[in-house]
């Protein structure tokens, strides 16, 4: 089994987006950290319930803590925390949909309800077998939910426009070498970028910008990839597209 696999996604922009898949070692590390956190929190709750209400209260608290950790903890961090629990953040991992989009509530619920079967009931043995034998390193919950666990991709530094973009920034560019097919790819990316998770979004912008920069003489060095694509669309088409993120904030 090759542990540095990548999932290739063919986007409507005509670009192959590579998502670096998490291997079983990094997934084990993130799971171990989350188990230690959840176990410590559950122990405190159970001891407190036992002290206040006796054995029955402790049993009820143990069942509730189990469900909260195995399902609630992961769902909250995956949906609200960008696909990263505390353990995944420490291991540099993230859960995304198999299209590269952020994971949604329904998918998170499916993968984490199945975690009870794979993890607590069967000691993660089915999960290990599935990760080692599937093409995209997916456990059963991932297969059912249509999710992937990927290595987190660091996003490039964002350079927000300081004010209205001076026409001289892009109107002097020679964009004759950029054809309609390339322009359509840029426009499609700019329209759909907010549907991507930050890592895949930055990777796709970088891939498009890397392919198109050599076709446009006069581009100043250090220009952010998404700004370059915006300026290119403006220079080629006329009207300027909205700033990155819509409000001078990256990856909204």
UniProtKB/TrEMBL annotation:
Pfam families in the record: RDD (PF06271)
Source domain of life: Bacteria
Record bears the keyword Zinc: no
Transmembrane parts of this sequence: 28-50, 56-80
Matching InterPro entries: RDD
GO-annotated cellular components: membrane
Membrane association type: Multi-pass membrane protein
Keyword Calcium appears in the UniProt entry: no
Record's subcellular location: Membrane
Annotated RDD domain residues: 22-146
This protein's UniProt keywords: Membrane, Transmembrane, Transmembrane helix
Signal peptide: none
Name recorded for this polypeptide: Putative RDD family membrane protein YckC
Organism for this UniProt entry: Solirubrobacter pauli
């Amino acid at each position: 089994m090759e542990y540095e696999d990548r999932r290739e996604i063919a986007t409507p922009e005509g670009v192959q987006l590579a998502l670096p898949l998490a291997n079983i070692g990094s997934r084990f590390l993130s799971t171990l950290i989350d188990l230690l956190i959840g176990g410590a929190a559950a122990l405190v709750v159970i001891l407190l319930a036992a002290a206040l209400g006796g054995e029955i209260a402790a049993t009820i608290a143990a069942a509730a803590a189990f469900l909260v950790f195995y399902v609630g903890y992961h769902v909250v961090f995956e949906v609200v925390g960008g696909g990263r629990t505390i353990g995944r953040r420490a291991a540099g991992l993230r859960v995304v949909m198999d299209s590269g989009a952020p994971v949604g509530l329904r998918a998170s619920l499916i993968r984490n309800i199945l975690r009870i079967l794979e993890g607590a009931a069967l000691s993660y043995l089915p999960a290990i077998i599935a990760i080692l034998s599937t093409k995209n390193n997916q456990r059963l919950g991932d297969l059912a939910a249509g999710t992937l666990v990927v290595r987190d991709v660091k996003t490039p530094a964002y350079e927000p426009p300081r004010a209205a973009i001076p026409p001289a920034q892009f109107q002097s560019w020679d964009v004759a070498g950029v054809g309609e097919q390339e322009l359509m790819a840029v426009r499609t990316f700019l329209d759909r970028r907010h549907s991507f998770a930050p890592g895949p979004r930055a990777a796709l912008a970088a891939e498009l910008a890397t392919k198109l920069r050599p076709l446009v003489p006069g581009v100043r060095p250090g220009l952010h990839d998404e700004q370059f694509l915006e300026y290119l669309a403006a220079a080629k088409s006329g009207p300027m597209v909205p700033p990155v993120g819509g409000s001078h904030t990256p990856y909204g």
